[in-house]
Amino acid sequence: MSPTLLQQADALHPALSDPKNVQSTYTDPLSEVQALSGVDAAFDGSTPVIDMDGLLGPQRSEFIKQIGHACEKNGFFAVRNHGIPEMKISNMLDTARDFFHLPEEERLKFRSSDPDSLIRLVTGFQDKTRNIFVSRQSLKFHCHPVEDFKSHWPSTPPSFREKVGEYCASVRKVEVAILEAISESLGLERDYIDKLLKGHYVSINYYPACQESELDVTHGVRTHTDPTIITILMQDDVPGLQVINDDKWIDVNPIPDAVVVHVGDMLQALSNCRYKSLLHQAIVNCERERVSIASYCYPSDDSAIGPAKKLIDDDHPAIYKDFTYKEFHESMWRVKCSTAKRLDLFKAESD
């Protein structure tokens, strides 16, 4: 049997079992894995679609079961009837486009190389190792509570703070409700993950249309996982998101009035690898620009991020030792790995 994509990545990856062996930089192994041929569209069949109305009715237990199945089998799912008003979504996407259509000098006021900055603009860049251009531009900022951070946000376009604030407040409520359901799906107390939460971080992503002659050497975002508990993604109507499922790439095309939720590195650790962080990427096209809004749920710096004790027994030994999110965050930037392999630094010692 030929090796899977993840097995190929493991074979190319330097040992991460001991922090002393970690170099400050290295080439991400997944960037060296040959691209898989063939991409499946995932609009009707491959994307689990969950109706969030189930949270409030007598079928809550069925909703919880669906969430758990999607997290374990797919690593992602779409949510309908999430409660974010359509107008707030439309305003958010319009405001995002307006910001990235501003003159360059206005946008570049927010450019920063400091990953801990309260707000920073990340621009496209040339990957000289692979001879490709990564085209995504992102405005990343903290947003919970909204009133604590909105003064740092752009004042141009004039509606930015109002429209973005309304969306962020709404998506935060969805985030908490989904995390409660995920906790229950693991057999944990409803507020188990909620107790770990620190804040809410948003990335407004803009993918310019690409010249057809440059499609082969232009990526939206390279393969990665998110260092989050979960990520909630709102897409406009332009396809671009791809995920690895059953060791093949599938397109996760926009579903009207739905958000996409996917598992992050921290949930992989908390669930003792029952729910695995989702490998995903974004592609560009030569016809239309694309906008997406990623909402990141992450723990407080001092939160313990080992496997939940209820999930550990003789048949399911702990895969990871306890560590704090601060320790993980610091190692992430030192190791410069873009996938959940960065969790290998915190694997439990074998007897």
Automatic annotation (TrEMBL):
<keyword id="KW-0560">Oxidoreductase</keyword>
<dbReference type="InterPro" id="IPR026992">
    <property type="entry name" value="DIOX_N"/>
</dbReference>
<keyword id="KW-0408">Iron</keyword>
<dbReference type="Pfam" id="PF03171">
    <property type="entry name" value="2OG-FeII_Oxy"/>
</dbReference>
<comment type="similarity">
    <text>Belongs to the iron/ascorbate-dependent oxidoreductase family.</text>
</comment>
<dbReference type="GO" id="GO:0031418">
    <property type="term" value="F:L-ascorbic acid binding"/>
</dbReference>
<keyword id="KW-0479">Metal-binding</keyword>
<dbReference type="InterPro" id="IPR005123">
    <property type="entry name" value="Oxoglu/Fe-dep_dioxygenase_dom"/>
</dbReference>
<dbReference type="InterPro" id="IPR050295">
    <property type="entry name" value="Plant_2OG-oxidoreductases"/>
</dbReference>
<dbReference type="GO" id="GO:0046872">
    <property type="term" value="F:metal ion binding"/>
</dbReference>
<keyword id="KW-0847">Vitamin C</keyword>
<protein>
    <recommendedName>
        <fullName>Fe2OG dioxygenase domain-containing protein</fullName>
    </recommendedName>
</protein>
<dbReference type="Pfam" id="PF14226">
    <property type="entry name" value="DIOX_N"/>
</dbReference>
<dbReference type="GO" id="GO:0016491">
    <property type="term" value="F:oxidoreductase activity"/>
</dbReference>
<dbReference type="InterPro" id="IPR044861">
    <property type="entry name" value="IPNS-like_FE2OG_OXY"/>
</dbReference>
<feature type="domain" description="Fe2OG dioxygenase">
    <location>
        <begin position="198"/>
        <end position="299"/>
    </location>
</feature>
<dbReference type="InterPro" id="IPR027443">
    <property type="entry name" value="IPNS-like_sf"/>
</dbReference>
